[in-house]
Amino acid sequence: MCEEKKTDSKPSNNCEDELKELKKRLKELESELAVKEEEISEYVSHLQRLQADFENYKKQKEKQELELIKNANEKLILNLLDVYEDLERAIENRENDGDGLEVIYRKFRDTLRKEGLSEIPAEGEKFDPFLHEAVMVESHDEYDDGIIIEELSRGYRLNDRIIKHSIVKVCKKS
């Protein structure tokens, strides 16, 4: 800081110069602060727009997913309607058509396969906990340990995904 001489009642030029410099620096800093505050305001506005856009995107994506599921179900139902109507006709005319139900069964099975459904092999296969659910074990001379003796309920894959495990009885050697 500037030092005043005791004999001089006026502040020295040095103090006045320093004061002017400080005032000038203060104005520069205030100007820089105003610029930075404006930048912050712009960033906040931009962030708010991005957040709103993201929320709109999420809502649109959810709506599209629901629509996709709805359309997928509609396609499946449309494919099953022919089988349903054939089954209805076979029941109405069951005295006249002994093979009708067998034809409908094959058509229904083929429709499900066309949609990506496949059966999981079980009886005589090695037990696989990813494909089968063992609910019973039994000692059996004809089968090796861990081989499926009997399929109690069939399992299914839809495309590559297991949708129902086979319920099985497994051989367990004593």
From TrEMBL:
- Gene Ontology molecular functions: adenyl-nucleotide exchange factor activity; protein homodimerization activity; protein-folding chaperone binding; unfolded protein binding
Q: Main localization of the protein?
A: cytoplasm
Role = Participates actively in the response to hyperosmotic and heat shock by preventing the aggregation of stress-denatured proteins, in association with DnaK and GrpE. It is the nucleotide exchange factor for DnaK and may function as a thermosensor. Unfolded proteins bind initially to DnaJ; upon interaction with the DnaJ-bound protein, DnaK hydrolyzes its bound ATP, resulting in the formation of a stable complex. GrpE releases ADP from DnaK; ATP binding to DnaK triggers the release of the substrate protein, thus completing the reaction cycle.
Question: What domain of life does the UniProt record list for this protein's source?
Answer: Archaea
Q: From which residue to which does any coiled coil extend?
A: 12-97
> What is the source species?
Methanothermobacter marburgensis (strain ATCC BAA-927 / DSM 2133 / JCM 14651 / NBRC 100331 / OCM 82 / Marburg) (Methanobacterium thermoautotrophicum)
Family membership noted in the UniProt record: Belongs to the GrpE family.
Tell me the compartments it is located in: Cytoplasm
Name of the molecule in the record: Protein GrpE
Alphabetical list of PROSITE patterns matching this protein: GRPE
